[in-house]
Amino acid sequence: MLRALRITALLLAPAVCAAAPDPAEPAAAPIRVYGRAPPDAAGEHRVDQRLIQQKPARTADELLELVPGLYVVQHGSEGKGHQLYIRGFDALHGSDVEVTLEGIPLNEPGNVHGHGYVDLGLVMPEVVRGIVATRGVSAVTQGDFATAGSVALRVGVDPAERGLRVAVEGGTTGRLRGVARWAGDEALLAVEGTRDAGFGQNRDLRRATAVVRGELGVGGGTLTGFGAATHADFGLPSAVRLDDVQAGRVGLTDSYTDDTGGRSQRVVGGLRFARRVDGLRLDAGLWVQGRALRLDERFTGYLDDAERGDGHRQTHGAVSMGIDTRLRWRLGPRWRLLAAVDWAVDDYAQTQAPLGDDGALDPALDRDLEATRQRAAVSAAVRWRPVPRLSLEGGVRAAGWRFDADDGAHGAGGETLFALAPRVRGRLALGRWLLFAAYGRGLRPPEARAVVRPPAAADAPADRYQGGAAAVTVADHGELGVRWQPDVGLTATLAGFAVGIEREQIYDHVSATTVERGATRRAGAELDVALEPWPWLYAAVSGAAVQARFADGAPIPGVPTLLGRLEAAVEHPWGITAGLSLLALGPRPLGDGAEAAPAAVVDAALGYRWAAFGAEVAVELAVENVFDTAWREGEYRFASWWDRSRPRSALPAIHAFAGSPRQGRLSLVVWL
Amino acid sequence: MRPRTRVAAGALCAALVGPIGGCGGDSLDAEPLALPVIAHPVAATVTDLGYTVTPTAARQVLVDLEFTRGGEAHAGWPGFLSLLVGRAHAHPGHAAGGAVRGELPGRHVVDWMAGGPLGEARVLPGPLDGVDLGLGTAGPEDGLSAGDGLIGANLLIEATVSRGAQVWSLAVAVPQDADRRIYGAPCPATAEDGATLPVALRLTDPVEGDSAFDGVDFEALDPDGDGHIDAAPDSPLVNRLKRAFQTHDHYGLTSEETR
Q1: Is the pLDDT reported for residue A508 higher than 60?
Q2: How much is the ipTM here?
Q3: Which domain range does residue A173 map to?
Q4: Chain A interface, best mutation among B89, B120, B245, by max A CB count within 10 A
Q5: How far is Cα of residue A331 from the mean position of the Cα atoms in its chain?
Q6: Which of residues 506-535 of A touch B (CB under 8 A)?
Q7: How many domains does chain A have?
């Protein structure tokens, strides 16, 4: 990294002291310099690989915490997808954050549990080599669900770590996890098995995951194959009422239910071909996915059904495939052209049925949907560098979607939608300073279910009760930023942003109608500081402040107004490794003046690596929540009725999902 | 990194870790107000056949009133979910079509002629759009005497019906299905200190202008010409009124009326 930073500084140097070449001098042989290009926008962030390696993360989802300003909540247990908050968006399970893995889109359109659902249980942290985040929207290649930003994960293993690595991990919650990873220069294979009772109640997990990746030289280019598969069974705790916790009726880590849980299965495969010819770079991919998800949940107790309870079972099965092609063409010394085409189809079937507290399913389904969604998009952008220190890029993404849906419970429908998304960005280098400006429009297509018009109530006009027409949610982002690098070991980036959505649309899972939430506004600032005081220590400090409001001034519930993080990694030549992760979470408005509690939590890891018996061995200890802070990772306000001996109330009350209490995990790692 | 920068960086990290090594604050929930729920007196109605129905007595059993913002009463109103607190049927964080903002639990025998307070509701501060209410079947548990005509029914209306010089007296007991509930009766109000929450029974739909008695030819219901109309259970008149009072149209108030 130090080398990369130095080279980056060298690359920037011509911007400071650019001088015209002397035509009288003989042409020198070209020298290829490898380094990390500066970001194209202030919101673009490349996570340092040392942080990925040393973060005491249980899953790849938790690695997303390394993206500054991104708050990750687990409101189930380890096998379930996480809830994401970034730049004032409550992105639920991924509805506003585009996530890709090896170029393969992971957001699941129309998932029964949440539009754009992302579950990174598919990939173990040990094989994640790179995370590149674009907060906000500025690049024409950002696709569906990039209304708040995009995160791209890359799989691989650092060259110094290649070979066979076997790790066994035990934890204080009865966790037993084994990971075997073999990585060569052009191939990677990893398998994982995990059993964990989880903290508190009903957070047990059983999971198996496999990842394979290989590269092959073909036709003057590189053909990369990638595959991943996972199977997980897990418990799903209910959120506990805060008034029950405060009265001592339940514990913060308890669950009202012990019979709710889920099963998640997913298979992803892809081929990608990349070739560079003179000034042209071609990158083309093909991918296919299979998905099965079942969730049994009960969050509101007996509020709606005092006899059987308000549980439900959701099932979702999907097959998806897609292709994409990107061309980067150097048109001249100052011009670049980027063109991209992608197409994808998702075919899925899903059900939702009432689930009694006796485990019996109601045969009358709330939803019985079969849907097909197709997406085609074309993107094009031109980059112009009129002078070396200035880079300007402008382009547009044009996308179209075709939805066909048949819901046995609510009818059938079909619709085609189109949207255009202009995006421009610029970067100016001034000595140690880089100035950024960007505007971009993010797009979130509706769920296929939204094209189904449910029958209107018998006594009501249809246009009033069938919900709004399905439409693409459009988010307009503006961003200004500055990056300062006074030293090769210090980089600071400050960004200010504003986001406007004129017509926020969601599909209401309860009333089965498309609901318009009106206009929303978000504005905030982010500060990222990267520090490398010594070559063996890397630290990233970040802070984000955001105001997210509806047009009438009411705050968007759940969004952290302040978020701070310190992430540090130690990889000392003596064999000592360490990771430190500090989260400082500010208040989160919950509506009506209610607020979720602020919190500060520290996770840490310490390891020692040495040579023994012809192999390398490491012992690593990870401790989550070092100070055993009783904190609430997720807080929500809604009505519930669990104790039927007490009066029923339909008024909203704060419910919480506990953050992890202090837990320890000890790993023995052997490299052969 | 230069030594001076290194020291500054270390100080920055220490400043972050030191004060907030590990702590959890307290959450703050919203406090509901206690506001009286007031029944508005019922008014006379004129039907499409020209009859004027002037109630002389009207009592009804209402159950578990819930005051809402958004939801079925106002689907499609822009920005109506701006104060949304979802019911979290799908899971916390998912939005729902409307939110309960206040409640007056229990059974209430409402005298729509006298009007007056039903009780104190617990209501979160802020604007309201509607009220959901259950229609109960009256029984001795409601404190009614054994011979009370309301027992076994949900609504008892006694009225004088007139058209021109003709006058009839009417008594009709309207039953309802078990667990019947009205959703989204308009109730434009703002929950704030000193406010009251109105509920009303409307013989005339204040929005569309139709009467609950439209289509009823009272003259034909008095074949013996004695001037008294007693509607038998399951008679067309009872069934018509049963259907009419199953819709929220006949319980709402307009914003002008609540000012």
Answers
A1: no
A2: 0.77
A3: 2-20+31-261+278-671
A4: B89
A5: 34
A6: 506, 508-511, 513, 515-519, 529, 531-534
A7: 1
